[in-house]
Design goal:
Blueprint (H helix, E strand, L loop, with lengths): L1 H28 L13 H4 L2 H5 L10 E6 L2 H4 L3 H11 L4 E3 H4 L6 H10 L1 E8 L7 H15 L4 E6 L13 H9 L5 H15 L4 E2 L6 H26 L5 H12 L7 E6 L6 H12 L5 E5 L2 H22 L11 H8 L4 E5 L5 H7 L11 E6 L2 H6 L4 E4 L5 H12 L7 H11 L6 H11 L4 H13 L4 H11 L3 H13 L5 H11 L1 E2 L2 E2 L2 H10 L4 E2 L5 E2 L2 H12 L11 E2 L2 H8 L12 E5 L5 E3 L13 E5 L8 E3 L6 E2 L4 E4 L10 E2 L6 E3 L20 E3 L20 E3 L21 E3 L20 E3 L18 E3 L20 E3 L21 E3 L18 E3 L20 E3 L21 E3 L18 E3 L23 H17 L5
Parallel strand pairs: 1-2, 1-3, 3-4, 4-5, 6-9, 6-10, 7-8, 8-9, 15-16, 16-18, 17-19, 18-21, 20-22, 21-23, 23-24, 24-25, 25-26, 26-27, 27-28, 28-29, 29-30, 30-31, 31-32, 32-33, 33-34
Antiparallel strand pairs: 11-12, 13-14
Helix pairs in contact: 5-11, 8-10, 11-13, 14-15, 18-20, 20-22, 21-22, 23-25, 23-26
Length: 963
Amino acid sequence: MAISLLYLARLVFLAVFVGLRRRLLHFLRKPDTPKLTQLRIHVPASVPLSVESENSLPRSLWTYDVFLSFRGTDVRKSFVSHLYKALNKEGIKVFHDDKALQRGSLIWDGLVKAIDQSRFAIVVISKGYATSRWCLEELSLMAHLAEKKRLELIPIFYEIDPSDLKRRSGCFNDALEKHELRYDLETVGRWRMALAQVGNISGWDSKSRNEESELVQEVVRDLSDRLFSDSDSSSDTDGLVGMISHMRSVESLLSLDSGDVRMIGIWGMGGIGKTTIAKFVCKRLSSKFDGACLLENVNKEFEQYGSSHMRQKVLSQILRQKELNSWDGDSVVMKRRLRGKMVLLVLDNVDNIEQLQELVGSLEWFGPGSRIVITTRDKRVLEQHDVEYIYEVKPLKITQALQLFSKHAFKQPRPPKDSAELSIDILKQLDGLPLAICVAGATLYRRDIADWEHYLYQLRTNVNSSVAKALRKSFEALNKQEKLIFLYVACCFNGKHMHRVSKVLDLFIVSGHRPLRSTLSIRTLTEKCLISISTTKRLWVHDLLQDMARDIICEGKEENPWKRKMLWNFMDINNVLCENMGSEAIEVESLLLDMPKGKELYIRPEIFERMYNLKMLKFYNNSTAKGSTICMPDGLVYLPMLRYLHWQAYTLKSLPSRFCTTYLVELNLPNSLVETLWNGNQDLGNLRRMNLRGCRRLLEIPDLSKATSLENLNLDNCESLVELTESVRHLKNLGVLELSGCKKLKKFPNNINLRSLRILHLERCSSVEEFPFLSENVKTISLDETAIEEVPASIERLTQLKTLHLSGCKKLKNLPNAIRNMDSLTILWLSDCPNITLFPEVGDNIESLALKGTAIEEVPATIGDKSRLIYLNMSGCQRLKNLPPTLKNLAHLRFLFLRGCINITQRPETAGRMRALDLNGTSIVEISQPVQSDDEPLDMPRLAQYIFQSVKEHVRNQRSMKL
């Protein structure tokens, strides 16, 4: 024992002696080699204030997307060169020191500024990285900002082991010890801590990739996804100044570290920014929860669709399940499914206590740590529901208002000196309301000083509120065409897809005898902040602007609804249609009615004969479940020359004989009782969309040979439809054809060469026995639960096919080998096909493969060549034997499901970084890695949902965009 202590003491003495000797050498060398401490920076003082105050800014406010830090002599001409080019090619703006710094600049100041103005920092840590004091100073600054959550640090460990950064030996320690001979120990200690901090961050390891190009692709793809996520939210948050202070206040109320369930309210007047704050909260915090859901316009959706629909929507989003049709929206089920989950639920624009009682009845509905955020204009709603934590969104202060106004009026952060005083005078009239400030600024953009002064004069002198006046002045500054389009979008098409709206509006308003190009006017309206366009290309008009538009429509005609251009109120429509109100001619152009609960509307056969100007007719949600009906006991004899017809649950067997379709752009009769639309041919040259979904009595579709502009045809669940007319072959612009649930449909027309067809849905067409012959341009085919027996070898002609769904095809045999030649195929689902015995020989670009419940016995070793494979589901394959060792070559594999594969005895080797590995029900003796619990059924794995949702979103955006 004594010997051991003596030995230990000698070691300590030697260590102390070496340290003292090193410090003595420092001291002796001081006159010749002074310590270079001038590079030391105190980050909080050196970094501009914008970094401290504007964390997680929208992408548009960063100068660079990425700051690239590396040791030039190690990797500049090799790996970094390829990475830089790939990032640029992806449209990612990169700060690259030898390219972005101008000659003669103060280099360090330029680097600090560039780091400050970057959203991400990629640090390529190579063997020589720590030999450069510049690299270490960069790293120290970036590590500090990352710790403060002001910068996201992404390390790439290039031909090194991440653990080397923390060791007291090796090349990094050697480099730091050399630095200790020139720099003070505090500086080197800071560098050492920064290296250790980066070593603890999960990054990219070049040693785990066979090719550098593969690593470059992964980094670029990951960064692109993150930036896309940022830009997805930036459209909603870009215009709101002071967002970070809002977020700090809201996060303080949320108290995310607390394990309790908490509801908070965001309360304020219309146009103050409540929705923008709520969206920002959801985008920023959703990743911290098991599931998240944002419900917009709760008041309108609740009134239109009811509580059951809203609960279904909540559960669908939180559980990431698209299909919840078997559930009727009962609150008991919702509570049972959510009480064990930590969720984030955002309810936007609540105006009634009933909405909260039905959607978030009590805190016990949700699991520990859950947060419910509610926005409302009415504080009493929050108080009645016992919401304890309430954040009041107050008007902008004058400095914030000036910044927001300048962004729209001058396209810069602050006004020119000669315009500052006038800008402040205008802002004093706008009460700090962001919506009014944005609209006013956009209206005055590029206007001369006389216009500004006149604008201010009118704000000061009119009797109405300054905010209302500002909004109205912006409307009055529009030309005639822009005014009409704004009124139509605000009153008829709010929330609808821009492409579809523009097609209808082009024929709504004509200039002379020529159709209108409404997209140009829509762009102008967005520039003036009167309309916004979402990332999914939907048009949105703020509630205050919509109210203003409706007031304009009604002005001077309050007692004469038949003289208005648009009607949407039940009482007004009832008076015009049923009470025979008004003069000989009715001036209404658009009639939209969401039937209120318990109401009846009687329509006389000839009523529409007096509506010469009617262009849009929309009756919707008039189902008997709501206790509302539209009665036509004597039928209907006439419809005017409509541009848009949407009549949900239309009760007659056909459309009236006197109905001219020459100008018709959309025909939507979902869930109706029609058996046939019309007899003979109709002029359908302008028809873009036909939706007959759920018309279960429809026997045939009309001759569509003249509908050459038709883009979308929806015949889902037309259960009586036996065949498609041969006229379908003339639909040269048809992009989406939906025939799901057409149980009597036996086959698809032969040799239909629809060159534009991208999406075909035939799922649940149980009588379809043959694989359809399609154009090579098709991208998505869904044949789930059909009776097809084989996929022809000619499928390899479909060179653009990305998604093929064949799940539930009980008669389907093994796929042809030709499928291996389909390089574009990324998603193949063959689940519950019991006659599939061979693993499909798919191409190397496959990403998602579902083979659940098949009779496959083995997975070939070539599975290791599918380097892009992310998701593999073989659950329920009871004949399946152990997976080949080549599975570990799949670097991208994140989700592997083998539940119920009883013959699997060995744990499959994977490349790591797995998100989910389900081995329940296998014969593996020891399962050390966590698997999916049995508390809830494994409905759909998370990444599968991601892929599935991505496909569905892509399909939905291109096909069934509700109007």
